[in-house]
Each structure stands twice: as C-alpha cells, then as structure tokens.
Amino acid sequence: MLRNYLKIAYRNIIKEKAYSFINIFGLGLGLAACILVGLYIYQDFNYDNYHQNGDNLYRVSIKTIAPNKTDQTAETPALVAPNLQQNFPEIEKISRIYFSGNDLITYKNKKIYEEEIIFADKDFFEMFSYETIQGNSANFLKKENSIIITQDIADKYFGTENPVGKVFNINNRVDLEIAGVIENIPINSHFTFDMVATYGTLVDLPEGNYLEQWGATFGSYTYVMLHPEVDLKQFIDKVDPFLTEKMETSLRITKSIDLQPIESIHIFSNIDDEINPNSSISYIIILGSISLFILILACINFVNLTTARAVKRAREIGVRKVFGAYKLQLIRQFLSESILITLIALGFAFVFVELFEPSFSQLIGSSLIFNCFDNVFIFFSIIGISLLIGAVAGLYPAFVLTHYQPVQVMKGATQQGKSGSAILRKGLVLFQFSISIILIIFTILINQQINFMRTFDMGFDKDQVIILRTPERMSTNSETIKKEINAIQGVLESSTSLGAPVMNSGFGTNLTPNMQIEDEDFMISVKMIDYNYLDFYDISLLAGKKLSELPGADFTDVTMVNETTVKKLGFDSNEEALGHAYTIGLSDGVKRFKPEIIGVLKDFHFNSLHEEVSPLLFMNWTWLFQEVSIRISPVNTPETIKGIKKVWKKFYPAHPFDFSFLDEKVDKMYKAEDKSFRVISTFSILAIIIACMGLLGLTFYTTEQRRKVSVHQFLILFVISHWNF
Questions:
Q1: Other CB atoms closer than 10 Å to residue 323's CB: what's the count?
Q2: Whose CA, among 90, 230, 263, 717, lies 20 to 30 Å from 669?
Q3: Residue 456: inside a domain, yes or no?
C-alpha cells in the first residue's frame, strides 16, 4: 500500500512540475534557513561546554549596591583572587585573567603586535580544558615568565620547528619561554586567546602599578572552581560581606560578589565590562522567530497550491471513492505526498545549507562549528521535525480533498471560488504579506537606529583624528613628541593622554563623597589628559576653570569632572561643586589622592551610546600618558601618515608603527547592530521571495483556470508578450 501511495505521489509531482518546483524549492529554502539558524542557536547554547570542570566553574563579578542604584561589573581588582583563596576553603582553584589587548611580540627578526594575549595564574590550565599538542600541561604556567601558545601562533612564528623552549620578548621588556602548544581555542568560548603568559609577568609591565590597589580595575577578571559538594547559594551568602570590608566603602554602599556559571555567560550575562560582546536570549528569540516565519510562509505556499489544485484532483478522488476507497486511505495517500515533497525539499535544504553556510557565517560574524551530519542528535532532530512539518502541512489539504462527495464531483459541483478553502487561501496570503510587511518595517527601524547612532553628536569632535598608542608610558617625552608631530605638514594639532574617547583606556576607581548627607561611594572613570585635550576634542567647559589655567598645580590636588559626576554628588548646579575635594581610590603608595574640583565639563559619550554617560574625572598625570591624538588635514593623508611614522621611528625604533582612526573606532562599537541589520534584512528578503513564489503559483493557477492553458503555455505566452523584438 505504501509503495502505491509513493508511486501516485511521484506521478503527481512529475505531472505538475511548476507547482512541485515552487513547493519543493520554497520549502527547501525555508528548511535551510531554519537549519542554519537552528545550528547557530544550538551553538550559542553550547558555549563553554567543553571544559571538564564546567559544572563547577564560575566567573566572579562585583555588585555595587547603592540606595538608588545597583551596578554589576565583570572586572575585578587583582587583589580579589588571592584574598578569596586565602579566606574561603570552598574554593578548590582560582585564577585571574588579564586581557592585555595589544602587545609587541619579538622573535628573532619578527616584530608583530598581537591582540590576543592573556596573563593567567598557575591554576588556569587545571581549571579550563584545552587540548595539548606539545609540552606537559601539568607544568603549564608553573614556571615564572613562561608562555603557552596556540597552534596558529606556532605556525605563524615557527612553521614546522618545535617552539617549546624558544623565547618570545614582550614589549621589549620581558623574555617569555614557550612551555607548550595547545589547540586553537574553540569558537564557542566566551573568551579567546592566542597566547597565555604567567600572571606574575605583569609586575614587570606598566600594569603592575595596579596589582596592589583595591580601588583599581584594569582589565583583570577572576574565575573560581568550587568543590563539587559546595552549595552555590550558601557560598555566595557567606562571601557576600567580603568586598565591603576589604574595599572600605561607606555605610550606605555595599559591594558583594556574585558567581556566574561559565556556561551561562554567553547567553545570559550582560553586565559592565564584558570580555567580548555576548549573545542574548532576546536576539535568539528574534532570529529564531524570523526563521520560523520563513518556514511557515513556505508551508502556507504548500497548503495554498494544494487546495487551489483540488478541482483538478476531484475526479480522481471521486473515482477512488466509487471503487471503495475509504476516507482514511485517501488521507494517508495525501499525507504521503506531503511527506514525500517535504523529504525531497529537505534534500535540497541540505544542499542549500552546504552552499550558504560560509555566507551565513560571514553574516552572523561567527563560524558554525556544528553541522547537520556530525552530530547524531542534530541529524535525527532535523529529520523528525521535517516529517512533522510534512504531516502538519499536508493535514488540511488532505481533509479538504477527501471531503468531496463522488456524486457532486461527477456533476462538476466543486465551486472552488466560493468554498472554504478559497477563503482560507486568501487569509493565508494576507498573513504571508502581513508578516513580510512587518519584517520590512522592522528592518527599516533597525537601519534608522543605526544611522541615528552613527550620526549622533557624541559631544566631542572625532573627525580626521588619528590615535597612536605608544608602547610605553611617555612620561616626560609627551611634550617633545607633540612638538615634533605638530611640525609635520598636514598635522593640524595634537594631544597626549591616557583616555582618548571610545578607546577603552584610562581606568576606574571609587570616589568617596565627604558630604554629611548622601554619603555614598561610587565608581568613576579616570582620564589622564594634557592641557590642550579639551580644546582638541572641543569638549565644552560649563563652570570653573580648565587644568591649563592652573599649570603649576599638582595633579593630585586638582581635577575636572563631568555633569554626571556633579549630579551624582548631589549638587543642584555645576557652580556648587567647584572647590569641593573628594577622596578617590588612587594613591602614591602612602596616601589616597583627594583632588579639588576646579571645573565642570559638559557630558560626552566616551563609550558606546548603549551605555549611559557615567561619572568621569580628569587629571594631568603626564607620567601615565600613552596615547597621542592627532588631527590631520584631509588633503594628502598618505604623506601626513608617512611623516607621523618618521617621528614614531625616532622615539620607538624597536616597535612597529601602528595607528587607528577614531571615527572607525566609533563605527566598530555598533558592529552588533550592523550584524542584526544584515541578518534581519537578509531573512526578510528571503521571506518576501518565498511569499512571492506562492503568489506566483496562485497566479499560474488562476490564469490556467481562465485561459484554459497549462502553466508551461502560460510561461511561454508571458515571455513572448514581454519580449522586445
């Protein structure tokens, strides 16, 4: 019986080639879209699942709880890890990880800036699981000034040589011995790296200045591995008062520790100072919903075209009923046809997935590490869902077609135009184009939002600005460097700092108000600037004086703040804040700084528009300067850059010349929105194509009914009538 069903189904598919093509091709596209999105979502939910100790691994984050606000940050002071390990036996292992960002690696005649270098404590490789290629993983990071590299780095620097025992130099300061090689870090990791060096190496680098300061966070993160029997909630309650005591906060402020399961970070964590941009459950729901709508549109095409062609098969059904066919047998036959079409479409979908996977990976900005065939669970899930889709999509047409009575069929009494199936077709077509219109509107809104963010006045002048990040602190050389750069033809002006907008430089600390009311500590970002920084970036002074008006003042004694800081301190006006001094969490090793506010600046967005403008403090500590901001003329830019390169080589001959444009940095901040726009617009176009294919099929049917010609004849007539002879 099944063989007979399949034979009849095959004949009908071959007989109605145009309708079959629309059904199979459209359904294949819909299934391919769902498979690709499903693989992406499956990958998102399997981030960091390859660590053997994953169930007991947690990232430490810090909650700052004030009377009116609670903030949470992923960064932690370097002192958190050793103090936690010393005071809480529930912790089996602990490791700090510092993400450096951009370091010069020197090996023989190769000098290359590397952005994927981290520094970690000795327990790192006992907590996290990475496949070892060369070296003894039990000894990784146990020796001071050692480094572990990935296979990509080994190939890049050593080719077929054995890299173990070779020495890298970092930033022309420290030699690091290569102790081993590991496999490249899996894509489904919430942090990645190419090299990991011993955490103690930071002592010999500029970052070592902040290792012993509770008030400084500088890109360091803390991970713990708890003993398996530890109850997480009880442990968090126990460790809760730890930071409040250590960081000496005010009575109205508490700092507590929260532990985030490592496998949940990529999907469910969206706190301050994330290592990399995470996904989100809302984005997954949106993307999954769009792909599901695409599949529904393809199924609607199948239902519409099948019911529209019901008249042509009515006599077949009537004859089969006259010869004794039961309704259930006919339903099985039509369901078999539907499932067969779905399975053929699934075959096309697998082909589409293979063809479009590289483009899809580029679209979402991440490679897919899972495919349809490597994972048995994924493969059989796809087969099962496809069979279910085929059955559900064919259910209504099956009941419609088997509903005809033989006597009415033989008399030609099948008035399709007035039947319920015709009304359903119109409703489904309306639904198709409603969804398409919604997707178009959604795409337009996202595009407008992106354009708004890119054209929004962030409060500083970012045009034609080049940023140089020097390999070491400029100290007393900053003015000399500026003078030589300003002498270059094409350079309009320059400024030195540690805290250029959107560069994620500078650092954070806590500020302690000394007001009798509203005695609250809060986090504040610190930017070290020279005297012409404000004029360079065209940042408005609202009250008081600029630092340049008090050139002889010690940097520890005076500061400027933004409007948000004034409001946070509880003043009603900017002028009221002038003359007040507040203790901050930075010190010279003897006492904490207590600078006086001499000026208030207009708020500007020194980070993405996704983040609210936060409290900001400006100081003139020239020793820390490590950036040169250079505004250039748009005329003859290459020659200007060549001149800047000559100055760089004069001061930093051992370091490769590297620079970036500030406006490009601003654009990169909205990479996630760009990705969302590309994904949604692409899938919206796909949905519209599928909806139009269904409408084209119905047009074929209507034309065939009225003109009494076949679909093939219709296509021939259409081409002839529109051909420009």
A1: 8
A2: 263
A3: no
The residues pairing with 147 across neighbouring beta strands, listed in sequence order, are 178, 197
Q: Is the pLDDT of residue 156 over 90?
A: yes
Length of the chain: 725
Decide if 256 is inside a domain: yes
Helix (H), strand (E) at residue 525: strand 522-529
Specify whether the CB–CB gap between 484 and 680 falls below 8 A: no
Extract the runs of DSSP E, i.e. beta strands, from 48-157. 57-65, 70-73, 91-99, 103-107, 110-114, 117-120, 132-134, 146-150
Alpha-carbon distance of 496 to 498, in angstroms, equals 7
Can you name the residues that pair with 489 across neighbouring β-strands?
Answer: none
205 and 342 belong to one structural domain: no
In the chain, how many H helices and how many E strands?
Answer: 22, 24
Query: Hey, what amino acid is at 656?
Result: P
Average pLDDT over residues 222-236: 92
- For residue 420, what are the domain limits? 2-45+281-447+674-722
Asked if residue 463 is part of any domain, the answer here is: no
Q: Is it the case that residue 43 has pLDDT exceeding 50?
A: yes
Q: Are 510 and 585 in contact, with CB atoms under 8 Å apart?
A: yes
SS3 595: coil
Report the domain count for the chain. Answer: 3
Tell whether the model's pLDDT for residue 417 goes beyond 50: no
Same domain, 344 and 385: yes
